[in-house]
Amino acid sequence: MKKVLLLALALIIMAGFVAGCGTKAATSDTATTVRTIKIALPNNFKPITYSKEDGTLDGYDVAVMKAINELYPQYKFEFEVANKDVMNSGVQLGTYQIGINGMFKSESRLKTYLMPENNIGFLRVAFIIKEGTKPISSLDQVAQGVADGSIVLSPLNTAGGLIQILDEYNKANPQNKIQYTPTSEWARGTLYKEVLAGTYTAVFDLVDVANNTIASNKDYAGLKVSDTIALKQTYCIINKDETQLRTDIDAGLEKLKANGTLSKISVQYFGTDIWAK
């Protein structure tokens, strides 16, 4: 009888141990469930999104997204190179959940994607001109110069956000509009060379991208970045179905702004704190 009781007790203890192990395993599986989030980005947009010499992806937007990922262990952010067209269509279709590339918020983008309330950062915009040319310090000056022929503005990229700035100006100044030519075949390097050749007076571009491009290529020696015209907020785009992801990114950006992380990342990639306004 005593042996039977001891055997029964042993079986009960063993059953409890097995059940406990099963519970721990289940809990562990639940705790480590991680969803992979694919993020698309062009890699030729230094210092916003670019590939380093060793092939790793880097840039201000990349660093911000990595900092957000650290706040949310339920996600694993994976970055993938895609040109702008592929990124835009891929996020729309759900091939990618997020796209990053220093993008401005617009009505057309809000119809196609989700975008956070909080911005990732800011980008300065200016006109790229030849050294010795009169500085361009305002859009009013550009409108007058284009009208009287003293400024020949290069075409503007229909796929970029800079055209939005001129459209907003024209809407607010119907009697003093800036006439420009839109193009879907915009090429920074080609237009820079055409400014040097005298074909155009100025290219409307992003200050930090232009500074890096001019400094890293001797073919553009003789160009300079004129006065900053505007400071525009930048955002990521998110697939329309990813409402929770958008909420999490928004909250993450709010926290990173409050704790100073965004300022530190800005100094690292731009050499200045774009958040110190």
Topology record:
Blueprint: H1 2-31, E1 35-41, E2 44-45, E3 49-51, E4 57-58, H2 60-71, E5 75-81, H3 84-93, E6 98-103, H4 107-112, E7 121-130, H5 139-148, E8 156-157, H6 162-172, E9 182-183, H7 188-197, E10 202-206, H8 207-216, E11 223-238, H9 243-258, H10 261-270
Helix pairs in contact: 2-9, 2-10
Give the tags.
D-Maltodextrin-Binding Protein, domain 2; about 20% strand; globular; disordered N terminus
Verbal overview:
The chain has helices at 2-31, 60-71, 84-93, 107-112, 139-148, 162-172, 188-197, 207-216, 243-258, 261-270, and strands at 35-41, 44-45, 49-51, 57-58, 75-81, 98-103, 121-130, 156-157, 182-183, 202-206, 223-238. The protein is of the alpha/beta class. The strands form 3 sheets. A 6-stranded mixed beta sheet has the order 5-1-6-11-7-10, with helices on both faces. A hairpin with a 3-residue loop joins strand 2 (44-45) and strand 3. Helix 2 packs across helix 9. The chain is globular. Residues 1-20 and 22-30 have low confidence and may be disordered.
Assign an overall shape.
globular
Average residue-wise pLDDT: 89
Q: Count of helices?
A: 10
In whole angstroms, the N-to-C terminal distance is 84 Å
- Work out the strand percent: 15-25%
Largest sheet strand order: 5-1-6-11-7-10
Series of secondary-structure elements, N-terminal to C-terminal: HEEEEHEHEHEHEHEHEHEHH
CATH architecture of the largest domain: 3-Layer(aba) Sandwich
Q: What percent of the residues sit in helical stretches (DSSP H or I)?
A: 40-55%
